[in-house]
Write a structure and sequence with these properties.
Helix content is about 55%, strand content about 5%. It is built from 23 helices and 7 strands.
Length: about 450
Amino acid sequence: MNKPLAERLRPTTLDDYIGQKHLVGEGAVLRKMIDSGNITSFILWGPPGVGKTTLAQIIAHRLETPFYTLSAVTSGVKDVRDVIEKARQYSSMHSGNLFSAMTSPTESGNPAETHRNAASPILFIDEIHRFSKSQQDSLLGAVERGIVTLIGATTENPSFEVIRPLLSRCQLFTLKSLDKSDLEQLLQRAITTDTELKAHEIRLKETAALLRYSGGDARKLLNILQLVVESSSADPIEITDSLVAERIQQNPLAYDKQGEMHYDIISAFIKSIRGSDPDAALYWMARMIEGGEDPEFIARRLVISASEDIGLANPNALLLANAAFDTVMKIGWPEARIALAEACVYLAASPKSNSAYMGIGEALQTVKETGNQPVPLHLRNAPTELMKQLGYSDGYQYPHDYPGNFCQQQYMPDELTDQRLWHPQHTPAEEKLYQQMLRLWGDRYK
């Protein structure tokens, strides 16, 4: 069977690597690390098809060090320990080379050559966010002692998905979706260098559809190009936007939980909930389920949607979304699909408000613009006698001592006393909150 085009074009050197100039361009931080040969453990965070796996392989090839690959989907703690033991044996066998390489320059004077044999074996873990806490814990000692150099790849925010002790031992590099010029460069390379594509006369008359459907994903772009070429009998093959759209409609790309349409489907799912269309939301969720998506991922997105899009218009939505997440964790597939469907329909059919989402965004922006404003004295904590003597907490009015458990006093910093951050939206549930604030604060909420 022929290799996919994306695999045939996978670069083996940084000079052939397309995109991520902020990391691997001349003088960039990761390029300097690679050129010096002093590789520390790091995590690559970015969307699918931007070169995370390729970059790890290029580094291992450049340093000529053993390269071990584990998938968090199929590997367990035993697999991790087996790799660490192999790396330990390698380090023991080459300990002399490691010392001499780190202390003696080579004749070439090339720093990468100097450290080439000094590099620890590389352990590349794809989808590291899927590793459980115990699996991640099993990596700590080997990473700490330099037995392996860990390179993790993830499409999920590492601060949520990677345990803090492991994250603190790794640098974090963020990869970006490929831009238009990157994708066009990749297309030109494909039709001019790939042996199988060169067997055809390919004319790129229009590229807008190719770029649009790829969504900044190099693998997806090349898969679409290969699909169009292999399904065309014309000679020469003139690639146009209409031809690309036609071929994709006739041969829809399969949902791929590891990449291809992952972000397109989840985007359609969330936007259907936000747009109050339960039928569409159920459809897109079914696409994810049939595609083998992790049920925890679907549940997390429902919790986020309940907070961001339904919010105070229906506070019960967050409770139900959390209950669905808890159900997924307790019972798993296939029954968990029912709880997810219940939450999905409820969220889509609920009234919508993003006032809390917008409010925290405005608050964060205010903090960035105004800096660390001092806490008013009457709101400060006064745990010591000296602080009490200095006036800390003087003037604070305890709301429960007043009728209705409320009294008007200043809670914002002096420079921001008139600042409004929460702007309620007048859905039925939120209207009650608004009327309460209007009654308590008067003109401030008019």
